[in-house]
Amino acid sequence: MSSSARNLAATVHVMRPVVPAKDFDISKRFYIDLGFEPRELTERLFEMRLGAFRFLLQNYYVKDWAENFAIHLLVSDVNAWWHHIVSLNLPQRYGTKTKPPQQEGWGVVAGIVDPSGVLWQIAETPNL
């Protein structure tokens, strides 16, 4: 990494992906149920927090963008996440899709698609 890139990296406080919402209220409820804490930034933009981790939920939707958008969440216990997701009954409540943990070449991966079509890959790698 160049010295100018290192200097710029030192100025970064947080990186937040911007996630689209087809129905803003439903998406907010979905993420709150999943465990995120909302913080309103504007009427059309919420910061969703889970501990030190954050993303921005935007009241904006383009089908092709949402259905080709993915967030990769690397965790220490994918089974704990899976049991949490199952306990919430999200597919029945929100019409979402889930994928139980499966062994991939690089780790164990579970999945959930939010109400707007955004894929969340929840993964655990053995080398962490």
- End-to-end separation in angstroms reads 23 Å
Q: Write down the Rg.
A: 16 Å
- Determine the oligomeric state from the structure: single chain
State the secondary-structure class: alpha/beta
Q: How much is the average pLDDT?
A: 95
Uncertain runs: none
**And the CATH topology?**
2,3-Dihydroxybiphenyl 1,2-Dioxygenase, domain 1
CATH top level assignment: Alpha Beta
Can you write the helix and strand succession as a string? Answer: HEHEEEHEHHEEE
Count of individual helical segments: 5
CATH H-level name... which superfamily? 2,3-Dihydroxybiphenyl 1,2-Dioxygenase, domain 1
Q: Please state the overall shape, judged from the principal axes of the Cα atoms.
A: globular
